[in-house]
Amino acid sequence: MTKTTGKDDGSWGKLIRDIVVILLLVLGIHSCVAKPFYIPSDSMMPVLRNGDRLVVSKYPYGWSYASVSFHLAPKTAGRLFGKLPERGDIVVLEHPVTRIDYIKRVIGLPGDTIELKGGALFINGKPVKREVQPMLGVPVDGNMPGADSSLGRFLDRDASGKDVLELPIVRETLPGGATFDTIDMGPGYMTDDYGPEKVPAGHLFLMGDNRDGSADSRVSVDRKGLGGPVPFDAIAGRAEIISFSTDGTAEWYNPLSWFSALRSNRAGTNLRPAHDATVK
């Protein structure tokens, strides 16, 4: 007859312990090293598209309550090993009021004065370099344009008869040389004129690259915007690279569709801005 010793390596207690350890490890990696992020809107077009999946690193700016994944940490002031972002960085943040995740680009640093006049950006009283680019054709698919997008007005067809968005592109180059493409839909938008506003100490001014379709620091909280400059402590991490992207046709019950939905040319896209060495 076999005697029970009270020790059972396959016991429920050990299984639960192992699961807790695994979950804590995942939470630690998510909070301290890197996490995935899904783009749910067109506010960061043309660089980011609805359906992109990103890798967001957690350590470049140090750690705060916003670094802890799944919004588990209470809001507290302070940042461990804090280092300010650079102008042009794409950052993920917790909305300072609703704590919903947003993704925007850093435009203004503490002490900067931000102003927009007719859609043209001024930093510290000087106009940001703007260069009109050729129209950009982006294929229409299940994720593009998004349900709440304002880009539908640019719907067109290419030479093969496929639906595309023909987008008006303006390349901006910020002080320090970070350069990237934005969408400028033309005059008449509420966000075309703003400020001047000085960014307080410990804050950042954030904007979306889809300048006329982004709820960012120019937009009040009651309109789902950030309501002005955002506390540095609300920044969760920096967007680094697109891991993969889907066109909205994938069905969870059909594994084959997971592969056919991939936008193969998006994976591996570096999200750090290029730099123009002639701009100081």
Description:
This protein is mostly beta strands and 280 residues long. The protein has two helices and 18 strands. 10% of the residues lie in helices and 31% in strands. The strands form four sheets. The chain has a seven-stranded antiparallel beta sheet with strand order 1-2-17-3-4-15-16. A hairpin with a 5-residue loop joins strand 10 (155-157) and strand 11 (163-167). The relative contact order is 0.20.
Summarize the structure.
This protein is mostly beta strands. The protein is built from 2 helices and 18 strands.
Report the C-alpha radius of gyration, rounded: 22 Å
Instruction: Tell how many strands the DSSP assignment holds.
Output: 18
Computed structural class: mainly beta
Q: What is the straight-line distance between the termini?
A: 83 Å
- Helical residue percent band: under 10%
Mean pLDDT equals 92
Low-confidence segments, given as residue ranges, are none
Query: The biggest beta sheet, please?
Result: 7 strands, antiparallel
Strand order in the largest sheet:
1-2-17-3-4-15-16
Describe the global form.
Answer: globular
Enumerate how many helices there are, as a single number: 2
